[in-house]
Amino acid sequence: MAEGQFKDGIASERLQLAEIAENFADLHPPLDHHEAVVEADRCYFCYDAPCMQACPTSIDIPMFIRQIATGNPTGSAKTIFDQNILGGMCARVCPTETLCEEVCVREVAEGKPVQIGRLQRYATDTAMRAGKQFYERAKPSGKTVAIVGAGPAGLACAHRLARYGHDVTVFEAKPKSGGLNEYGIAAYKTLDDFAQAEVDYVTAIGGIATENGKALGRDFALADLTGRYDAVFLGMGLAGVNALRAEGEEADGVEDAVSFISELRQADDLSKLPVGRRVVVIGGGMTAIDAAVQSKLLGAEEVTICYRRGKEHMNASEFEQDLAAANGVTIRHWLQPRRVIAEGGKVSGIELEYTMLEDGKLTGRGETIRLAADQVFKAIGQTFDAGPLNGSGNLIALEGGRIKVDEEGRTSLPNVWAGGDCIAGGDDLTVSAVAQGRDAAESINRALMG
Questions:
Q1: Could you tell me which residues come within 8 angstroms of residue 310 by beta carbon, excluding any fewer than 6 positions away?
Q2: Checking CA distances to 104, which of 78, 245, 385, 410 falls within 20 to 30 Å?
Q3: How confident is the model over 184-201, as pLDDT tens digits?
């Protein structure tokens, strides 16, 4: 254990670089050829396979696994990319334990599903390492499409439109493309700058121009795009962060978990990243787990997740909860923040109230507990900022605070589509965003080509 780990407050270099490297090794190491073939042989290749029904992008899972089993990983990759051009990242970050693998017949019968995610990674990595491109851009259609946001939805939409020969321009507010794949995924889930390698692979089809550092509402208006392009796709994700609504949350040391993860993902030397000695994370989703586990891996001594409801209500999967526990994170349920305790303007603890369900409604019990903390992370959800859409001349319809779309992703404005987390019903999954971007592209192409 590094000497620096015993520093009080928020500090860097709690662990040596070698320890950091070991802690942030690949969560699910890739399968080698022999392991992939052996695992593929476990598949029953079910007709009307439940795993395929559970995949938001409807990948033909039995087919791609059979292709691996018969020595054709490149063909397997094409089967995956036909439905999900970001299949490489989805293989790494999808909660397969609650999607395809949860309904695997092997899981139901034996409690040990076929490792579909790792097989998908084996196939897609094989093709990407070889630089194998399966799609050519069609003859230019003369049609132009603007895409706002270079995240999973925007990239999937751009690739499918480029396949049809349309000229696509992607506007991305951040310096790098990739969205949450680049900025919001735990570092141990995607190593070796894979997010950027995938962006390069997707855009290699041609016909896709990207303008980074260009934000809707700051550098251009929606009306500018609808006036200059034949169609527009909005895939800007979620920019706002929910407040704790607790007294004193403006204290130094109260941070947004999304920003912390983003900073971690962009850091050249993780040992230099400051982290508290006692960390409290408020929330019950994947972001809370990612922030908590990575705090522990950076050298925090005590990390506690506090969630206002019970274990069964957490959005984070059971696998993720177990991962947190295995890394020494304590998860406490039925607690909601009431007051951030500060000394000299800096966090020294947090006061939480015990909660319960009463007639189906969450309510406080009136009893409180104090936890020592020098760093508190907010991971209680993000919000959609509709402000950048204003000034377009037409107000876009919202539903539940996000963009309202029909079954094809069309918004209330003519020639404007949307997908990903920014739409009503978005579920914060890379694979769902890919499906929505892909399907919107099909709708856009139909509209453009009559």
A1: 333, 334
A2: 78
A3: 999 999 999 999 999 999
